[in-house]
Amino acid sequence: xxxxxxxxxxxxxxxxxxxxxxxxxxxxxxxxxxxxxxxxxxxxxxxxxxxxxxxxxxxxxxxxxxxxxxxxxxxxxxxxxxxxxxxxxxxxxxxxxxxxxxxxxxxxxxxxxxxxxxxxxxxxxxxxxxxxxxxxxxxxxxxxxxxxx
Length: 149
What we know:
149 residues, alpha+beta, 6-stranded antiparallel sheet, 2 helices, 39% strand, globular, (3R)-hydroxyacyl-[acyl-carrier-protein] dehydratase activity, FabZ, lipid metabolism, lipid biosynthesis
């Protein structure tokens, strides 16, 4: 896990919306706990039974879809990228996923800790290692690619 630094780079939902173009129901990061532009971001997603996707995934056994966990991680990485001055006002698109592994189910009431460390940044493409935790348990890990336009 990435350690949270004593850092003023905590962002609330309003500040996140100034960086990301996503809005409800697709904004999947509730808070940024720490961020160093171009290097890493640590976010939080409060998983609520009120999420639209729980109506159909799966009734009586609600589980957050893995694709949405990956999307939450991608949004967290995009915050780290788009916090760089040269990318202000741009959009970071999900360019690819490799080595995705899901280790435990994410259910209503869980709090996802979203960690993305950026490995490489070339021109308008970024690569990062992403991990999502529920408490101290790794729920998902993946290598992500971002395309910035």
